[in-house]
Amino acid sequence: MTDTTFAKDIHKGLTAPLKHISSKYFYDDIGSGIFQDIMKMPEYYPTACEFEILSLQGCRIIERLGFDKPFNIVEFGAGDGIKTRQLLKQLVEIGANFTYVPIDISKKAIEELVSGMLKHLPKIKINPMIGNYFSMMEELSHTSVPALYLFLGGNIGNYEANEVNNLLKDFRGSMKKGDKLLTGFDLQKNPATIRCAYDDPKGITKSFNINLLHRINRELGGNFKTNQFDFYSHYNPLNGEVRSYLISLVPQNVFVKENQQSYSFERNEVIWTELSKKYTLREIENAAENNGFTVMEHFMDCKAFFTDSLWEV
Ligand code: AVI
């Protein structure tokens, strides 16, 4: 079935002066599968770092919540839930009275997450919500139950600075006094480490990007010849930004049936596909303060590559 928003965004992005496809379109079923492979790559450190934080420091995070009555743990975009499970397991062990509320736009993703979670933690209370984050948050903000909101995995790094502020302001607007937000931020580190994570020797990240073109072919009737595109990723240590691109190797025209439109590419013309921002602790603190939060604690892995930063309102 055609997704018309997708068709419109592709048209807008491929007719812009700097061609662009939003990284949110990486995650169809095939792209989500490739992302699972990325998370298993030895070069892609964020997953292992956050797993370590939640496994080894979960108790300390729980202590800092200070909730003395039943509470919700609300998670945005939980993925496969393996990392979150480390935290929930520790809550179950201490007999905490909580309900896990995973939110995702995809029914399939939620169903898989819930069955995986119940397989490992059969006694846990789960109240899954399918839909857009903000309408779900709006709904939750009307309850008097305190909440810990989780925005893990470094997803915040995929948003531009103005989008980060809008997102945090929206979170803040739906949170009650005493609610907490735990956000995963990838930290600035040796640029060579970051470069390898986003341009791996096996080309898995390249196929993650090329899948965007396959997806346009599959869903919008495009005729991209994907072997005529290369992948390029660049980390700028001065601003902490990884930016990734597809490069047209030859001058070419690509027709997209759904849009009844041909798009022309010059040789070496780029399509920008992703931002993945790496933060300093100071930048994280500024983001919190500028959007009405107070930083309680940064929970970092032993290499200080990644932080789950706990904020309160
Ligand atoms: C989902 N997101 C946090 C990943 C990241 O690290 O920015 C997506 C990704 N892109 C390339 N590798 C992984």
TrEMBL record:
Pfam families in alphabetical order: Methyltransf_33 (PF10017)
Keywords on record: Methyltransferase, Transferase
Domain Histidine-specific methyltransferase SAM-dependent residue range list: 6-312
Keyword Methyltransferase assigned: yes
InterPro entries: EgtD_Methyltrsf_superfamily, MeTrfase_dom, MeTrfase_EgtD-like, SAM-dependent_MTases_sf
Protein name (Swiss-Prot/TrEMBL): Dimethylhistidine N-methyltransferase
Record organism: Dyadobacter arcticus
Record lineage: Bacteria, Pseudomonadati, Bacteroidota, Cytophagia, Cytophagales
